[in-house]
Specification:
With 187 residues, the protein is mostly helical. The chain folds into 2 domains: 35 residues, no CATH class; 122 residues, no CATH class. 57% of the residues lie in helices and 9% in strands. It contains 4 helices and 3 strands. A 3-stranded antiparallel sheet has the order 1-3-2, with helices on one face. Helix 1 packs across helix 4, helix 2 packs antiparallel against helix 3 and helix 2 packs parallel to helix 4.
Length: 187
């Protein structure tokens, strides 16, 4: 392949999916993406690291949604797949947007310290995050037609884990934001 191009190879069939790619002096990054291995060289490591990071974030978001969807499917009411999917979108948006907002506020405090002295910044932050979350979760509605993705999260034990994760993410992000705010406004 030419200089700076990605080399995709299937893992060897006789070994695990984590088999290393043949080494090359110019390939200094090797990453697993699903069952593919990607070796990147010639200064292109930032691109594959970004793609790998986005793939991991997408898998994490899919896992979170599957857990919340399984929780809503196991209820005794509104447990039709379409209704449960619609009901799972709201807590999913909350569990994603609260940490996002809690991470965004300290960054804004560092970038624009005078802007956070008043409450005028609230709509400028929450409305765009809400719009991005709405547009980002529109594609999730298709999972209403495939409830089997959440089948393993419908047991009572899985529901307890989902509730603990949900509450833990919300409380943890608020705690981290509060500590960050205290550190930023320290005299």
């Amino acid at each position: 392949m030419g200089r700076g191009r990605f080399r995709l190879r299937r893992p060897h069939r006789l070994t695990s999916a984590r088999t290393e790619l043949p080494s090359c002096d110019s390939c200094f990054l090797k990453a697993d993406v699903g069952d593919w291995q990607v070796g990147v060289g010639h200064g292109r490591s930032k691109h594959i690291m970004a793609a790998t990071c986005l793939a991991r974030v997408a898998n994490m978001l899919r896992y979170l949604f599957a857990r919340i969807y399984g929780y809503t499917l196991s209820r005794s009411y509104r447990n039709d797949p379409d209704q449960a999917c619609q009901d799972a979108i709201t807590p999913f948006m909350i569990v994603i947007s609260v940490p996002l907002l809690c991470a965004l506020v300290p960054i804004l405090a560092l970038a624009f310290p005078a802007a956070l002295q008043t409450k005028d910044w609230v709509p400028w932050v929450t409305i765009p995050v809400g719009i991005v979350m709405y547009l980002g979760t529109r594609s999730i509605r298709r999972y209403g037609r495939s409830p089997e993705m959440a089948e393993k999260y419908r047991s009572p034990a899985a529901r307890r884990v989902t509730a603990v994760l949900y509450i833990g993410v919300l409380l943890g992000s608020i705690l981290v934001a509060g500590l960050g705010g205290r550190l930023l406004h320290r005299p």
